[in-house]
Design a protein that fits this description.
The protein is an alpha/beta fold. The protein is about 30% helix and about 20% strand.
Length: about 375
């Protein structure tokens, strides 16, 4: 029988097992099942880490019993699962079967890369969402804002890591880049690191120790190199940046969870070409807390921050307090998020349609006034 109350020194607790997950597992205790953390998903089968006496072992388990057409409920790297090591085997070399998934505490979501209104879970039960941004290219503040919004929405703590800091030039230039990134992510820690020189890695390792972190970013952001540096071994293949366009190659092809030397675990993910918003209204509000605070001072509660009288947001733009770029990014992400929500929310979709019709009517009226009376 599995002992739910493992000591802090047990290797399984290093993968994130705690009293909360033990309580969630209680209904399955005493039935021959064991808890396991999914460390990799591959075509209906998962690698899971399970307790084994005073140690741990990795099992290959089938997911047929929890198969679903809902992409939001499929097993994901980072999930905690109920594993039956004895029954339900459906093929050769399988060690068990997944009977159920324990409730997720956090889940990093993006809109699926399809035309359907579906979400995709990139990682589950994450404490830190590490957003890797390469300094080998011009800093894309809009992309940082996008990732940070999704990270806040997931329930995880975002952390922006500026990689390849050795390519940033003089120290004062690097300080400016860090300050720019901080302006795009209020309340979020920004660290500059270099896997080549080791600068900043000790601070990053200390921040990530003891929890679950997911490493996110575009191809070429240096994620694989950073993962190798944090893990202390060459676990990910590293390829050079393409000379012709500076783009990176997808060197990581699966989402894998591995133990960090200083405690905690790291989920590395493939490079993301696109990161679509997915019902991230709360995350956007936190990422753009400066814009939201200004909006509270507007004369009209439904101010669109365009040409309305008494708009505190526009006043802040005019006096240089709020960059035009940031306001435009805020509007863009709000529109994108509203569209994806509308695809799955009939009420909001109707409101958007009604608002659009009202704007069309006002537009026609203004055009008629501009033309003047017709003879």
């Amino acid at each position: 029988m599995f002992d739910l109350n493992l000591t802090a020194a047990h290797p399984f607790t290093g993968y994130g097992w705690d009293d909360g997950f033990a309580e969630s597992f209680t209904p399955y205790a005493g039935q021959g099942f064991v808890p396991g953390r999914i460390v990799r998903v591959d075509r209906g089968r998962v690698d899971v880490v399970v307790p084994d006496g005073e140690g741990i072992r990795t099992m290959l388990a089938d997911t047929a019993l929890v198969a679903t057409s809902d992409p939001m409920r499929v097993p994901c790297t980072g999930d905690w699962a109920v594993i039956d090591p004895e029954n339900g085997l459906t093929g050769d070399h399988l060690d068990g079967v997944v009977r159920a998934l324990l409730p997720r505490r956090t889940a990093f979501l993006r809109s699926a890369s399809s035309k359907r209104s579906e979400g995709q879970i990139l990682a589950a039960n994450v404490d830190h969402a590490v957003i890797a941004v390469s300094l080998a290219d011009a800093l894309d503040l809009g992309r940082i804002e996008r990732f940070v919004s999704l990270a806040w929405e997931s329930g995880a703590q975002p952390l922006v890591v500026l990689t390849k800091a050795d390519l940033a030039g003089e120290p004062h230039g690097l300080a400016y880049l860090v300050a720019d990134a901080e302006s795009a992510a209020p309340g979020v820690q920004v660290l500059a690191v270099s896997s080549a020189t080791g600068d900043g890695l000790d601070v990053l390792s200390a921040v990530l120790a003891g929890g679950t972190s997911v490493l996110l970013g575009q191809s070429g952001a240096g994620k694989s190199t950073l993962a190798n540096a944090l893990l202390g071994e060459e676990v990910q293949l590293v390829q050079a940046i393409r000379d012709r366009d500076g783009k990176g190659r997808h060197t990581t092809t699966t989402r894998d969870l591995r133990a960090l030397p200083g405690g905690g675990v790291l989920i590395d993910t493939p490079g993301l070409r696109g990161v679509g918003m997915w019902d991230a209204g709360t995350g956007l509000a936190r990422t753009f807390s400066d814009v939201e605070s200004l909006a509270e001072e507007c004369r009209f509660h439904d101010c669109a921050h365009e040409a309305e009288p008494g708009c505190a947001v526009q006043e802040a733009v005019e006096c240089g307090e709020l960059p035009v770029r940031r306001l435009e990014s805020y509007r863009k992400l709000l529109r994108e998020n509203q569209r994806i929500v509308a695809k799955t929310d009939a009420r909001l979709r109707a409101e958007i349609r009604r608002d659009w019709k009202q704007k069309q009517a006002v537009g026609r009226h203004m055009m008629e006034r501009k033309r003047g009376p017709q003879r």
